[in-house]
Amino acid sequence: MQITASLVNELRQKTGVGMMQCKKALTETDGDMEKALELLRKQGAAVAAKRADKAAKEGRVYLIETADKAAAFELTCETEPVSNNDDFVALAALATKAVETQAIASVEDLKNAVVDGVKINDRLQDVLVKIQENIDFRKFAEIKKVPNSVFGVYSHMKGKIGVITELAFEGSADEAALKQAAKDIAMQAAAFAPVALNDAAVPAETIEKEKEIAKAQIEASGKQTKPEFMQRQIDGRVAKVLKEIVLEDQEFFMSEKNPKKLSVKDYLQEVVAKQLGLTSLKVVNFIRFERGN
């Protein structure tokens, strides 16, 4: 079958892959469009496999908010310029539309989603063939909106860090003011990287690790300590660490708004809730993604 320019262009429009690659794929499949598409996508998978050992620490974290949910996903690549590439940006936009309009619960759901007749994973393979870098969807998380709550969304350094917070409140207040408070807490999480919302949510292995570190530090000091005093010192040191890694226990970082140096939990309740005339205001959920981590 003759491989015409119009046929090559049609394949290029479907995949975004270069003209020469499209012509080669059509030649190898005797002009069969569907087989050529399949071949190019297999080549995309081959590119991904070939470059799997290449560090993909660039890319962006994307944040989505709708009326009933908020979500985040990370799309990675090897080099920073690729994150600004039109094909990379278009792939992210397609994934964003899927999250906005469909029930997505995982990275696999996202890859398998179909938007405007296009399967996201197929478009990913097209981009892999065209750009020849290790590109992939790495993380996904979602928060379902609860009654009487607002989301705060904050993107730092063009998607290097993305944070979503959810504040629950009792009473009524200006929505813009509530969302600003939620965004302030999202900025807090971006800057101070909490690992959990509250003490109960801290992984048990993290606490055990901190206890081991504290014990080793005390023993290294060379001071003789009775067992009961040793445990008190360990507990005290772990409690101090928890104040640094638990979001609601961290000191709220905006000093001009928090001259009393209150924790996030106390700042929301004693300052913001009072200012807005609310009975209560607290953080109930958050997502924090950092590119490459």
Radius of gyration: 25 Å
How many distinct helices?
Answer: 10
CATH superfamily of the largest domain: Elongation factor Ts, dimerisation domain
- The CATH class of the largest domain, by name, is Alpha Beta
Q: Residue share in helices?
A: 40-55%
- The total of beta strands comes to 8
What's the N-to-C terminus distance? 49 Å
Residue stretches low in confidence (pLDDT < 50, at least 5 long) are none
Beta-strand fraction estimate: 15-25%
Describe the structure.
The strands form three sheets. A three-stranded antiparallel beta sheet has the order 1-2-5. β6 (149-156) and β7 (161-170) form a beta hairpin. The two termini are 49 Å apart. It has helices at 5-15, 19-28, 33-50, 86-101, 107-112, 120-131, 175-192, 204-220, 227-245, 264-276, and strands at residues 58-65, 69-77, 114-115, 118-119, 136-144, 149-156, 161-170, 280-290. The chain contains ten helices and eight strands. It folds into three domains: 5-50, Orthogonal Bundle (Helicase, Ruva Protein, domain 3), CATH 1.10.8.10; 54-145, Tetrahydropterin Synthase, Chain A (2-Layer Sandwich), CATH 3.30.479.20; 147-202 and 246-293, Elongation factor Ts, dimerisation domain (Tetrahydropterin Synthase, Chain A, 2-Layer Sandwich). With 293 residues, the protein is of the alpha+beta class. α2 (19-28) crosses α3 (33-50).
Topology, please?
Elements: H1 5-15, H2 19-28, H3 33-50, E1 58-65, E2 69-77, H4 86-101, H5 107-112, E3 114-115, E4 118-119, H6 120-131, E5 136-144, E6 149-156, E7 161-170, H7 175-192, H8 204-220, H9 227-245, H10 264-276, E8 280-290
Antiparallel strand pairs: 1-2, 2-5, 3-4, 6-7, 7-8
